[in-house]
Specification:
There is one protein chain. The protein is of the alpha+beta class. It has six helices and five strands; from the N terminus they run E-E-H-E-E-E-H-H-H-H-H. It has a five-stranded mixed beta sheet, with helices on both faces. The radius of gyration is 19 Å and the shape is elongated.
């Protein structure tokens, strides 16, 4: 007898049931205990707008709203989100919550390749829901957790600034 308890071996086939409200819809799926939330959203729920970038929480491509707060879904196990309310870029788009941000990103060419755009929009949405009048420095600070290889950020900052001003004035972005 080796003293090794083989019942503790993980054969890789174990799954755990999880339930979420994703984009306003109740969903249930079976996940491996160590499956990340981003992988669950993309693979099990086919919500591919949330991107897996660095998988270390540094690039912001995986941002989703979890119970109203932006979180890095690559740093969280799906089982940790059991029972949570999750909004992905698809849900924010469908609800119209970010329509003005999307339009301004498009107008100012702040989206170029588009890989970082969903995370940028989730982050911008959170910022503008917390700070009605962010300064350009506050916008830059809020975006410091999002990495973009294409735009140089100025167009993104310009777009968010324009939407913030338009919202304050009660109209659309200009």
């Amino acid at each position: 007898m080796s003293g090794f308890d083989e019942t503790l071996l993980d054969d890789g086939d174990e799954t755990v049931p999880v339930r979420f409200v994703v984009n306003g819809r109740k969903v249930a799926c079976e996940v491996a205990p160590r499956e990340t939330l981003v992988d669950c959203l993309r693979n099990a729920l086919e919500l591919t707008g949330t991107h897996a970038g660095c998988e270390m929480g540094a690039c912001g491509a995986c941002l989703v709203q979890l119970d109203g707060r932006a979180v890095h879904s690559c740093l969280m196990f799906a089982v940790q989100a059991d029972g949570a309310k999750i909004n992905t870029i698809e849900g924010l788009t469908e609800s119209g919550a970010i329509a003005d941000l999307q339009a301004e990103f498009h107008r100012r060419n702040a989206l170029q390749c588009g890989f970082c755009t969903p995370g940028m929009l989730v982050n911008a949405h959170e910022l503008l829901s917390q700070v009605a009048r962010p300064s350009r420095d506050e916008i830059r600070d809020a975006l410091s957790g999002n990495y973009c290889r294409c735009t140089g950020y100025e167009a993104i900052v310009d777009a968010i600034d324009a939407v913030a001003k338009a919202r304050r004035e009660g109209g659309g972005a200009t």
